[in-house]
Amino acid sequence: MIELSIENWSREKIAAFQEIRLKEALAYVARNSPFYQRYYREAGASIAEVANLEDLQKLPFTTKEHLQQFNAEFLCVPPQKVVDYATTSGTSGSPVTFALTDSDLERLARNEAMSFDCSGVEKGDVVQLMTTMDRQFMAGLAYFLGLRKLGATVVRVGAGVPELQWDAIQRYRPAYLITVPSFLIKMIEYAEVNGIDYRNSGVRGAICIGEPLRNQDFSPNNISARITEKWDIRLFSTYASTEMSTAFAECGLQQGGHHHPDLIIVEIVDEEGRQVPDGEIGELVVTTLGVEAMPLVRFKTGDIVQAHHEPCGCGRNSLRIGPVIGRKQQMIKYKGTTLYPPAMNNLLNGFDEIRNHLIEISVNELGTDEIQIFLAVDDPSDDFITQIRDHFRAKLRVTPRIEFLPLEELNKRVYVPKSRKPVQFVDRR
To answer: Distance between CA atoms of 37 and 73, rounded to whole angstroms?
Structure first.
């Protein structure tokens, strides 16, 4: 088991420790970051005025636009110290390159080892990695490094192809899978069609990425319920991003992703950039600790979340992050209702008949948001469209336009060749 480090300290002791690390991080960017040297000078901000965590608010935010526009200026080390380049997925704009040093890779490995340990993975466990490690994908590399640091055995199958996944599961008997949860549904469907006894496969759990597993009260959402009602495995949610090089992973109590306070400082802010009261919803802002190549200070992730500060029954006292409600720039205003794509995805995932879906948002002639949903189903009918619309009205108070497409045609739109993730939301506004 990985030592909990400072996660089981009191909130006061954690804050005191973070203030020491914060001063080190700020002094580092003041010496080495061309971007922050120029940015703070032009903004009239002074790192010297930051004496504690609250004083962080005296510094301006860093945004995705800054990373896109001044990417090279964030580098704090000579190019020859860089050992790896990763890129963001580009789902909310142009991809951004992140350089990593040996020290950064070690930090990444430690983060993932602590996260896997939090979710119950142990030394000696066999873990099947069902995500890509190529195409500059940081997460796949991070998972591999973390599992090796933990002492687990890794089976690197990569993404997709249920037949290959089941062949590896039957051959190596992994205890855990690392995968996108919706792919587990395809795995179950393939097993049922091909007579694979998946319930006795030896798989105990899945570390799930890319899609939420819980509702805001931590109850299983539709996709989680669809998986576990057929396959008795434990599903663990994780949340991370390339920019923060840190993950929030669920423990066995599954009450939110645990914060690693020695690796990252967390703020939750409102529309005006002010700190929200404990328990309120807002945008996640992060300051990385211990990053050598490209550290970030007060980076606005764009993710809308709720933090939970009460101690967890597992013994950890660091805050927990609930399921991501949505991305700030993907917020939809529809006839007085505000909603985010994850809520619509969750509703659609509750229908076994839907083989795939795509949500498109556009602006109509009145200047308001319009929701268009494309569905691939086995038996399309007007009655099914009515059923979907009734659920949207009852659960989300919106009525989208719905159109059926053949599965092959819809898959071409969703599985874009240059994208590392399925594209099930398109914003045309």
So the answer is: 10
What is the pairing mode between strands 97-100 and 354-363?
A: unpaired
265: nearest Cα among 98, 50, 112: 50
Strand ranges, E, within 124-263 = 126-129, 153-156, 176-179, 205-208, 234-241, 246-250, 257-258
What pairs with residue 397 in β-bridges?
Answer: none
265's tokens:
């400082």
Residue type at 43 in one-letter notation: A
- The span from the CA of 238 to the CA of 181, in Å, is 11
Mean pLDDT for back-to-back runs of 10 residues, the chain (429 residues):
73 94 97 98 95 96 95 97 88 79 97 95 97 88 96 95 96 97 94 96 95 93 94 96 94 96 96 92 97 98 94 93 90 78 90 93 77 93 94 89 94 82 84
- Asked if residues 159 and 135 have their Cβ atoms less than 8 Å apart, the reply is no
How would you label 411-422 residue by residue, b for 16+ Cβ within 10 Å and e otherwise? Answer: eebbeeeeebbb
Q: How far is CA 46 from CA 20, 30, 294, in A?
A: 17, 10, 20
Residue-wise DSSP of 88-116: ---TTSS--EEEE-HHHHHHHHHHHHHHH
Exposed/middle/buried for 80, CB within 10 Å: 0-12, 13-18, 19+? exposed
Nearest to 217 by CA among 188, 250, 254, 245: 254
pLDDT digits 0-9 by tens, 146-201: 999 999 999 999 988 999 999 999 999 999 999 999 899 999 999 999 999 999 99
Question: Is 409 exposed, middle or buried (CB count within 10 Å of its CB: 0-12, 13-18, 19+)?
Answer: exposed
Give pLDDT tens digits for 106-118: 999 999 999 999 9
Q: Closest by alpha carbon to 324, among 179, 215, 183?
A: 215
The C-alpha atoms of residue 345 and residue 54 are separated, in whole angstroms, by 37
> At 160, which amino acid appears?
G
E strands, 233-321, in order = 234-241, 246-250, 257-258, 264-269, 281-288, 299-308, 320-321
Pick from 134, 192, 130: which is nearest to 160 by CA? Answer: 130
- Among 101, 183, 97, 168, smallest CA distance to 137 is for 97
C-alpha 367: how far from its chain's center? Answer: 31
